[in-house]
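Project outcomes to date are best conveyed with an example. Our students and postdoctoral researchers have been running inverse folding experiments weekly, and each run begins with a structure described purely in C-alpha cells. The record below, which covers 80 residues, was selected by the lab manager from last quarter's runs and is presented without edits.
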C-alpha cells in the first residue's frame, strides 16, 4: 500500500441537494519536495514520518545535505 503523508480530508462540490462530498487522500508520493523538506525541518514532526520523508526524497534521487543553523563562532571577548 502507498505511504500516507497526512490524514484523509473531504472536499465539497456543488450547492444544496446536489452537493457532493469528495474524499481526498494525501500520499507521500504526491507531496512536493518543498513540503517534504519543510516537514523534515519541523521540530514538532513525528520521527517516523520524518524517516518516510527522507526515504521518499532518496527514492526521487534528491541528495540531502545537512546544514547546521547554529553559529559556531564564539565571541569570548564580550564575556570578559
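After processing, the design step wrote out the following sequence:
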Amino acid at each position: 500500500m502507498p505511504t500516507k503523508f497526512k490524514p484523509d480530508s473531504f472536499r465539497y462540490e456543488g450547492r444544496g441537494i446536489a452537493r457532493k462530498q469528495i474524499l481526498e487522500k494525501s500520499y507521500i508520493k504526491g507531496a512536493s519536495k518543498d513540503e517534504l523538506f519543510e516537514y523534515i525541518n519541523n521540530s514538532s514532526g513525528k520521527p517516523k514520518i520524518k524517516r518516510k520523508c527522507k526515504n521518499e526524497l532518496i527514492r526521487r534521487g534528491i541528495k540531502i545535505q545537512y546544514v547546521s543553523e547554529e553559529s559556531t563562532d564564539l565571541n569570548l571577548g564580550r564575556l570578559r
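The mean pLDDT is 87. The chain has two helices and two strands. The training component of this project remains on track.
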